[in-house]
Amino acid sequence: MEIALLGNPNTGKTSMFNNLTGSYDYVGNWSGVTVEKKVGVFKSNESKLIDLPGIYSLSPLSEDEGVVTKFLLHDPFDRILNIVDASQLERNLQLTIQLLEFGKPIVIGLNMMDVAKNRGILVNVEKLGEMLGVPVTPVVARSGKGCRELEEQVTTHFDGSFSSNLVDYGKEIDEAILALEALLQNHSAHSTRWLTIQLLEGNEYVKDYLTTFIAESNLDSLIQQTTEKALANSNAKTIAQFIYKQRQAAIAAILKESTKRDENKGIPLTEKIDAIVTNRWLGIPIFLLLMYFMFMLTFDWLGTPLSDALDGLITGPVTDGLTNLLNAAGASEFIHSLVIDGIVAGVGGVLVFVPQIFILFLFISILEDSGYMARVAFVMDRLMEKVGLNGKAFIPMIIGFGCNVPGVMAARTIETPRERLLTILLTPLMSCSARLPVYALFVGAFFTINKAFIVLSLYVLGIVVALILASVFSKTILKGETSMFVIELPPYRVPQVKALWRSTWDKSKGFVRKAGTIIFAGSVMIWILSYAGPNGMNVAMDDSFLAMIGGIFAPLLAPIGFGNWQAGAALLTGFLAKEAIISTMNIIYFAPTEAGLQELLSQYFTPLAAYSFMVFILLYIPCLATVATIYKETRSKKWTAISIVYALALAYVLSLIIYQGGKLLGLM
Ligand code: GDP
Ligand code: MG
Fold first, then answer.
1. What is the pLDDT of residue 34?
2. How far, in Å, are 2, 29, 193 from residue 81 at the CA level?
3. Of 155, 180, 210, at which residue does a domain stop?
4. Which protein residue has the closest C-alpha to ligand 1 atom 16?
5. 235 is in an annotated binding site
6. 401 C-alpha to center of ligand 2: Å?
């Protein structure tokens, strides 16, 4: 007898496999993919157990997951052993129901009984079996408890008749089943009910299979008609979601009867925290509050004093030391100015912000390691779903807060090409750490009382714009269905100091390294451009090449509040790296200290113009490294160009609205 081992990821399938089987009959790969195929022989008899990839749903998101559907459709086997995690029944039963609908005899191994017990979940195993209509055996695969009973259950004869229509999907879907039945004319040996539901859920492999009997256009019109009818009086957005919700309702009813909470146990801490943190109404406010706290820490309580101290060190002893050194070496006026006014001002101006960056990353690392970030994705899912993405896409975006480059790369974890591309396009809108120094400088100069709030508003603006654009893109150039979101919520834990240190450093080192490379080179270049002009060397700044180049853009920038060549030049260098904006300003304004620079800035910017400028910096263009990464990840010149053009247009329009609107409202 051949038995297929199926279940969600991490439910203990491999542990069970090792427990039940003694020797391997076969180890290889499933055809077409790199997923390992293992077939084991039972210890006590000749039955074979086939290990399949863990999946949350039959409808596959990736080729690897398609293995299971292909197996069910084409491979001969006798029974299914479905491993179910007793502590995660609600999610696990989604798959179980799809397997029941398939119609082959099933035995359920209810694993992780120990975990469920610890979490205060009491499962009435008999009742659960009765309601599902199949044998359920409780086990602990890790210790081997219950495995003998399960083995006996699965290999000996049992009455394989059970109801395969546990879930009532409504009359529209029942009609679709009859329609497919008529189209199939007994050509397929598989359950028509199962085929119909899988087809409607978007299972490509089932559709492929059906096209061997039925013209694709017929299938498409069946899907379309059923979708229209079923969604007409439902609040589901897609037919897949509709089916998912029907199943969810049936599962809730089953669990209500067959599980209960252990009264003596008390609710576990993780669940107590989650009840608040992932609450429908509180989830997003809590996230915003935490971000606000993070910026207070970065800008007011800790980061700024540290940065000021570093600034004092660089502009004081370091500059003095270097000046003495240069004088002693008899350096020329040119070299002296290059080092002090170019490199020290440019690189030092950026390095000053290292403490703030570090604190920000430490905070983000704490949120990640404690398990909170997974909750943020979960909380954001509801919003993301409305705009054609799912919560998973928020994770690359959060990474993008650190640096857009790894953020764009993290979009690889998103399975559907449409959502992946969308995420890649939107991640650069997340305010990365390189933009932080610009905010720090400007809020320090113009918004001393509510620094954290102003910075928070910029971060939130990035997110909101991304959500709106996602919605626009998914209605226009990137149409398609949103895939279902499944995420493991790990239990909360106290982050370990060593791990925290490592991940904070991993994130910050890029910033430091960039200061030594691209910012260094950029500073030299900018300084030379500011030192030389059409009329020779050592010209007044306003007659330099830099002023000429920046001046080209100045008229364009006037309507958005900063029509001076300095801003134009800074924005141009900002494309190389956003920190270069700070370097450029330090060099241009020739400011001896950060405080001095802030004072000078107020001659060129009003507070309103400063806010408009920060919004422009947030949105106007992904930096060079990000553009290169977008190209690498999409392999498309078109999408890379779109990512630049839309950002520029968006930045200009928003800054225009903010500046002109602000002026109309009488703001300065
Ligand atoms: P698979 O991904 O479904 O193959 O799951 P694995 O067999 O790799 O198990 C995932 C994790 O759960 C491993 O760390 C196992 O040791 C653990 N595990 C498996 N079964 C049990 C169980 O019954 N109780 C507990 N506490 N842990 C288990
Ligand atoms: Mg495994």
1. 67
2. 10, 21, 21
3. 155
4. 142
5. no
6. 33
Instruction: Write out the residues surrounding ion ligand 2, Cβ under 5 A.
Output: 14
Predicted pLDDT of residue 591: 61
Below-70 pLDDT ranges, the chain = 33-34, 157-164, 481-488, 590-593
Distance CA 272, CA 266 (A): 10
Ligand 2 center to 63 CA (angstroms): 17
Closest CA to 172 of 235, 232, 236, 230: 230
Q: Whose CA is nearest to atom 9 of ligand 1?
A: 12
Maximum C-alpha span of the chain: 97
Rounded to the nearest angstrom, the distance between the alpha carbon of 15 and the centre of ligand 1 is 6
CA distance 598 to 543: 23
Residue 209 belongs to domain with CATH number:
1.10.287.1770
DSSP 329: T
Q: Are residues 573 and 643 in the same domain?
A: yes
Query: 133 and 240: one domain?
Result: no
How would you classify the pairing of strands 136-138 and 106-111?
parallel
CB 351 within 8 A of CB 437: no
DSSP per residue over 378-391, as a string? HHHHHHHHHTT--G
Question: What residues have CB less than 8 Å from 255, skipping those under 6 apart?
Answer: 89, 90, 93
To the question of whether residue 13 is assigned a binding role by annotation, the answer is yes
| Residue list, ligand 1 pocket, CB within 6 Å | 7, 9-15, 54, 111-112, 114-115, 140-142
Q: Quick one: pLDDT at residue 304?
A: 81
- Per-residue DSSP letters for 50-77? EE----S-SS-SSHHHHHHHHHHHHS--
pLDDT at position 609, please? 95
Rg (CA), the chain: 31
The domain of 87 spans: 2-155
Q: 229 and 304 share a domain?
A: no
Ligand approaching nearest to the C-alpha of 145: 1
Q: Are residue 303 and residue 438 in the same domain, yes or no? A: yes
Give the integer Cα–Cα distance in Å for 353 and 362: 14
The pLDDT of residue 413 is 74
Helix H or strand E encompassing 244 = helix 239-258
Is 92 annotated to bind a ligand? Reply is: no
Q: In the numeric block, which tokens belong to residue 45? A: 């008899």
Please tell me the total count of domains within the chain.
3
Residue 488: what pLDDT?
67
Would you state the pLDDT for residue 550? Answer: 92
- Shared domain for 323 and 183, answered yes or no, is no
Asked whether residue 428 is marked as a ligand-binding residue, the answer is no
Do residues 237 and 314 both lie within one domain? no
Q: Is residue 271 part of a domain?
A: no
Determine if residue 668 is labeled as part of a ligand binding site. Answer: no
Q: What is the pLDDT of residues 619-651, one digit of tens each?
A: 999 999 899 999 989 999 999 999 999 999 999
C-alpha–C-alpha distance, residues 369 and 373, integer Å: 8
pLDDT for 627: 94
Pairing verdict, β 136-138 and 79-85: unpaired
Residue nearest to atom 22 of ligand 1 (CA): 112
Q: Is residue 491 part of a domain?
A: no
Q: 120 CA distance to ligand 1 centroid (A)? A: 19
Report the nearest-CA residue for atom 13 of ligand 1. 12
Q: Which of 571, 566, 529 is nearest to 655 (CA)?
A: 571
Per-residue confidence (pLDDT) for residue 395, from 0 to 100: 83
